[in-house]
Amino acid sequence: MTTEGDPAIRATPRLTLQAAAAATAPVVAPVVLCELDFATGPFRVWTGLGDLSWAGLTFEGIGDLGAMSEVEETVELRAVRLTLTLSPVPQEVIDIALAERSFRLRPARLWLALLDAGGAFVADPFPLWAGLMDTMEVVDGPEPRVALACESRLVDLERAEVRRYTDPDQQAEYPGDRFFEYVPALQDAEIRLPAR
C-alpha cells in the first residue's frame, strides 16, 4: 500500500509513515503498553489478552480490567496528571498494592502500538506518556480496585525547592564539601573590630 498520493495519511513525529498508513487499514488494533518501575520489580501490562513480547520485555495482558484517564497534551509548559486503574482485581493484587511502599516518584511509561490481524506489531510502539508515580488508592470491598495517579516530570517545576545554607544541606548535595561547616558557630559569634 503506497501513501505518497494519499493526502489523508500523514506521518507525525510519533507515528511513522508505515504506522500511519496501517492505522487506516480495515484490520488494525491499537493497544497500550504500560511499565511501572516499582522498587520490588517492574510491572508490565498491556491492554490485550495473554503475553506480549517487545524489545526483550514481556507485558502481561489485562484485557478490559485496566483503564486509563485521558492522555492530555498541552501547548503550555505545565504538568499533566494521568490515572491508571485496575478493577475488579483479585485479593492477591490488593495485598501486593497495600504492601508496596517504595513507588512514589519512580518512573511510569506508556507506549501506543498497532497490531495487525495476526497480533504482530505493524511498527515499533512509540512513547505515549512518561512520568512519575505519585499516589495509590486501594479500595478493598465488593468491587476491589487499585488506582495509581502519575504526574509528568514537569511537576518538579511546580514544587518549591527548599535549600538552606547549612552544612547538612551541603553535605547532602556535595558529600565532603566543608564550605558551610562553621556557619552554626558564626551565628552566635561576637566579632570585635579593632578601634581606630
Question: What do you see in this structure?
Answer:
There is one protein chain. This protein is an alpha+beta fold and 196 residues long. The chain has two domains: 17-161, no CATH class; 163-196, no CATH class. The chain is built from five helices and nine strands; from the N terminus they run H-E-E-E-E-E-E-H-E-E-E-H-H-H. The chain has helices spanning 17-23, 91-99, 155-158, 167-173, 183-187; strands at residues 29-38, 41-46, 51-54, 57-61, 66-68, 81-86, 107-115, 126-139, 145-152. Strands 3-4-2-1-7-8-9-6-5 form a nine-stranded mixed β-sheet, covered by helices on one side. Strand 3 and strand 4 form a beta hairpin. It is elongated.
Main traits of this protein?
alpha+beta, 5 helices, elongated, disordered N terminus, 196 residues, nine-stranded mixed sheet, 2 domains, 33% strand
